[in-house]
Amino acid sequence: MTGIGGMCEAHRGVGLTRRRALFAGALLLGSGCLRRGTVPAREVLPSDTGKADRRYLVKGGVVMSMSPAVGDFARADVLVEGRRIVEAGPDVKAPDAAVIDAADCIVMPGVIDTHHHQFETALRGALAEGLVTDDDRAPGERNYFEEIIGKLTPAYRSEDVYASVLLGSLSQLDAGVTTVVDTSQVIHTPEHSDALVQALKDAGRRAVFAFGTGKKGNRVPEGPAPAEATALRVR
């Protein structure tokens, strides 16, 4: 995680703990620029975007490092070299770096979502007032396992999985969520699995693919994993 290393180098000797370094190191590599008030117009990316050794300066934003050792700034700059954050603070000097204007933006670590079911993005609002399980439910009460897992999930095609996961990923990126553990119960076939993983890759953010059986109750059986589940995991 070279971005963390870069921030540690920049602040070596100032009491930066490992936990604080994790927050500080994510400052820009996973940063969301949250503009107050209105959504900014799409900007043209610099020509050297994506180069391994690129230097760029995120300039003039409200920097929230989430680390007491680094501090927060009402107006500051963040300098990045390749994947390393090398400096953060007011008036950083880097005349040879490309500049990203962060005026009226908040620059902060990207949010980490540790549990999501992104294949269900297309089902938002489908069971807004339902119960999670059928425990002690009133007669006729709808619940998640019967409606979502039992009825709607089996109807998913591989292209439905791809569209839902990609939409969920891009929506989260827009909200500043840059890392996700995507737990899926829609792995009906290898094609479903491939579509889901491809959507995670195409979104361009950090992701961990986790999976379940997709069967009612969603209980993991004891003992060795079924052969088909192992094949999907390895693939």
E-strand count: 9
Structural class: alpha/beta
CATH level 3 topology of the largest domain: TIM Barrel
| Helix and strand sequence | HHEEEEEEEHHEHEH
Silhouette: elongated
At CATH level 2, the architecture of the largest domain is: Alpha-Beta Barrel
Helix content: 25-40%
**Could you describe the largest sheet, including whether it forms a barrel?**
6 strands, mixed
Low-confidence stretches: 1-32, 34-42, 216-221
Radius of gyration over alpha carbons? 22 Å
CATH superfamily of the largest domain: Metal-dependent hydrolases
How would you describe this structure to a colleague?
Helices cover 29% and strands 25% of the residues. The two termini are 25 Å apart. Helix 4 runs parallel beside helix 5 (190-203). A hairpin with a 2-residue loop joins strand 3 and strand 4. The chain has helices at 2-10, 18-29, 144-152, 158-174, 190-203, 227-234; strands at residues 32-35, 55-64, 72-81, 84-89, 98-101, 105-108, 111-116, 177-184, 206-211. Strands 1, 2, 3, 4, 5 and 6 form a 6-stranded mixed sheet that branches. Strands 7-8-9 form a 3-stranded parallel sheet, with helices on one face. It has 2 domains: 2-109, Urease, subunit C, domain 1 (Roll), CATH 2.30.40; 112-234, Metal-dependent hydrolases (TIM Barrel). By secondary structure, it is an alpha/beta fold.
